[in-house]
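hey can u check if this looks right to u? its 312 residues, i copy pasted from the old doc so theres a chance i mangled smth
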Amino acid sequence: MRKIAATATVDPACTLGPDIEIGPGCVIGPKVRIEDGCRLVANVYVAGDTVIGRDNLFYPGSVIGAPPQDLKHDGQETQLRIGDRNVFREHVTVHTGTVVGGGMTTIGNDCQIQIGSHVAHDVSLGDHCIISNGVHLAGHVCIEDHVTISGMSGVHQFVTIGRYSFIAAMARCTTDVPPFLMFSYDGTLTNVNVKGLVRWGFNEAQCNRLKRLYRQLFPRRGREEESRGTRTLLEMLFSRRARRGALSLARRIEEAEAGEPLDEHCQYLVYFLKRSLNNGKYGRYLESVRKDGQLPPPKFYVAAPQLGQAVS
């Protein structure tokens, strides 16, 4: 049974399922479609070309489907697509895509996006992800399935976060984060995400194979580094200082592939690393396929006064 509070503002052109609850102060735009079982608690704003699947829950202050915060965006019609059974806690913001980024932001199924988090334009968020309080996902980020990102972390644009990985609190993710691993706040890889893998049904043998591969690919360099984990991904994949390290990583990948047969999870970890290392830029695979590099500067910059020009 549909329940719409008297103080809600619902555009008559929107499409609502028959079993939906829209609480006080909510605003629903004309191009919005919301399927059955969804509940908008109160003061939720849903706009744009936004399609929301079944059984989603939106807490007060959520802003869903607002235009992207991208200076290249010029008001074009872009989209947001949300799957089923997601939870959007207080003051979460999710923006539509941009034309240059494919025109669509997507969120999968069974995710929890916690208080004050931001999902920017053209983000692809997989299934069963936890985005903790105050996490900011920049534009064009890809989050694979079963990822946990702890509070107050920031993810750089065009970064990919691999499946089943765990991001520590207040982490700065400026490079792709390999699947199945734990990423610390200081940019180091610390171990295989064993506890998370067990929760999702991985058995002991699968975890042990990933641990052996991790030790082979990311050996510690000396006793002085025991307290800080392996070298940072930024060092391995980007900085001039460790281009030798990047070559070394490539050789260790070759050795791993030439050794004992890898199961599907180990194969995917190796594939992910090779893609970021060999095809990516700055340690981010998606940087190599971005489409805005040759575009003229946005009007924001064109309209700016030239150097030396007086500003009234």
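The CA atoms of residues 237 and 277 lie 6 Å apart.
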